[in-house]
Design goal:
The complex is a heterodimer of chains A (180) and B (178).
Chain A (H helix, E strand, L loop, with lengths): L2 H7 L11 H8 L11 H8 L1 H19 L12 H22 L3 H4 L3 H7 L4 H12 L4 H41 L1
Helix pairs in contact in A: 3-4, 4-8, 4-9, 5-9, 8-9
Chain B lengths: L4 H8 L3 H23 L2 H17 L10 H19 L9 H6 L12 H10 L2 H12 L4 H8 L3 H25 L1
Classes of the chains: A mainly alpha (180), B mainly alpha (178).
Chain lengths: 180, 178
């Protein structure tokens, strides 16, 4: 009989008793802390609180500016500049939204309601567009529209940047795990 | 106690009783790996403790399709290898030719006993002992061992053949002395 066969047939003879109680005693002091049960939405909001905060700012910014518009100067013709600005921002926002939609919701921490707010042609946007169509010459509406686009772009950039960081961290962790 | 999904879920919530049950389910088998790899009881317990700290912390990262036992064993083996590296145990490459020359080693064994084989394995140089332990006791393939030790597969085969030959010689010598 060769060595491998001998060891495999007498395997139990090669096994010692388990470790002493000191190992568990030391381990017990290093156990991960119990986690409080939180609702999924609450937990998600806790992790992604800043996104929620920016979204609130985004909505408030557009809403308030429209709400406090005090001059209405209907003009029949839509100014070409506005169309250009819309095309420019829309293309960039749509492109980033497309990238974001490729990512699983669990990773981004964005629920369907939040995603809806991020989408380009949502209620806030429609409200602004309506105001702009009604008041194409009104500087404040145009400024509000531009600000709305910019904030949306900034937010999308920030989310995508965070996702990249998260993805890189996950890659290094999974590489580490793969090495284990 | 069997390791159930429910037990794993309790661990993930940080239930200390569940951690204890998980540890209890694996501690003996994993301690034996540490003992074989380090050769010392105190060191084996230290390595086991470090490995379990990592296991407990990373349970959340365990993919659902990964075998828990294989994952735990891999972490324990890695901690043992880190321990050996700290002890300056090197796994060096050997020429392919040496392996070919040693392929024909006579494997006819003398009267083997568990005690004699255990003692002989204990006397092996750490590098040989590691390869032999990983192959025979932990059921890793030559290729997997090569990956773990960052050496070529042929080196693993050579070291393994040499380890077996050394065990055979030690057992033979011991039986003559009796």
């Amino acid at each position: 009989m060769n060595l491998e066969e001998f060891i495999r047939q007498n395997r139990s003879g090669f096994e010692e008793d388990g470790p002493g109680p000191d190992v568990w005693a030391a381990l017990e002091k290093q156990l991960p802390q119990p986690r409080k049960e939180r609702g999924r939405v609450v937990a998600m909001m806790a992790r992604h609180w800043w996104k929620a905060a920016i979204l609130v700012a985004l909505i408030a910014n557009a809403g308030l500016l429209v709400k406090y518009l005090n001059t209405r100067q209907p003009v029949a013709v839509v100014i070409p500049e506005i169309r250009e600005m819309e095309t420019y921002y829309s293309a960039r926002i749509e492109q980033k939204l497309e990238t974001l939609k490729q990512l699983p919701a669990a990773e981004t921490g964005l629920d369907s309601l939040t995603m809806k707010e991020l989408e380009l042609r949502n209620d806030t946007y429609k409200m602004l567009e309506k105001e702009l169509a009604a008041n194409p010459g009104n500087e404040r509406v145009r400024a509000a529209m531009i600000r709305y686009y910019q904030m949306k772009l900034e937010l999308l950039d920030k989310i995508l940047e965070e996702q990249n960081k998260y993805a890189n961290d996950s890659t290094s962790t999974s590489t580490e795990k793969h090495v284990l | 106690m069997p390791v159930t999904d429910q037990l794993m879920a309790r661990c993930r919530k940080g239930d200390s009783r569940a951690f204890h049950d998980l540890y209890h389910a694996y501690s003996r088998a994993m301690y034996n790996i540490c003992l074989r790899m380090t050769g010392h009881q105190a060191d084996a317990e230290d390595v086991l403790q470090e490995a379990f700290v990592q296991i407990f912390k990373n349970l959340d990262n365990l993919a659902s399709d990964t075998s828990l036992t294989a994952w735990i064993k891999r972490i324990v083996v890695n901690h043992c290898l880190s321990y050996l590296r700290k002890k300056k145990v090197y796994f060096e490459e050997v020429e392919d030719q040496e392996w070919k020359q040693e392929e024909g080693v006579d494997e006819t064994e003398h009267t083997l006993t568990v005690a004699a084989v255990k003692d002989a394995i204990g006397q092996l140089p750490a590098g040989y002992r590691t390869v032999l332990n990983l192959y025979i006791f932990e059921d890793y393939s030559h290729r997997e061992i090569a990956g773990l030790l960052n050496i070529s597969e042929s080196t693993v085969k050579t070291q393994y053949m040499r380890a077996k030959e050394k065990v055979r010689q030690i057992v033979k010598l011991k039986s003559k002395q009796i």
